[in-house]
Amino acid sequence: MTEHQPTRGPRRLRRAVAVLLAGFFAWALSGCQAATVPTVPTPVPAATLFAQGRCGACHIIPGVPQATGQVGPSLCETAQAYREGQLTLQDIMDDIARPNARVHAGYLDDVMPDDYAEKFSAAELRTMAEYIAGLTCSAAPTPTE
Question: Span 46-133: which CATH code?
C-alpha cells in the first residue's frame, strides 16, 4: 500500500487562476491609462483678466481691487451706456480688443495698448465685456454746499 501524499493540484490551480486574473486586470487597466479625458479649461474670472491687462491702472472698475485709475473713463460709464441701449455686448468686446478705435470724448487718443486682441481670447473678451455690462455703479456723491 502506498502512502497517500497530499496533492498540490488545488493550490496550483488557485495560483494559476490568480495569475490569470491579475494579468487580465492589468491588461484591461492598461487601456484605461492610455485613454485621455478631455479637459475643459477653467474660466478665468473677469477681475483676473482686468489685472492681467492692467486695466485698473487707468480705469475705475468696481469690484476689482486697486482698479482706481483716473486716466481713462470709469467703466461704469460703459455699463450705463450698455443699459441704455447705446452699446451692445459686441461693442464692449470690440472696445476692449481695439480700444483706440473709439475713444470717449475728453480722453486722449492712442493711450491704450493695442495688443488686447492678441492677449485675450474671444471667450476672455466676452467675460470682461459681460462683467462690464453687468456693473451696477452708484452715482458719485454730490458735494454739499
Answer: 1.10.760
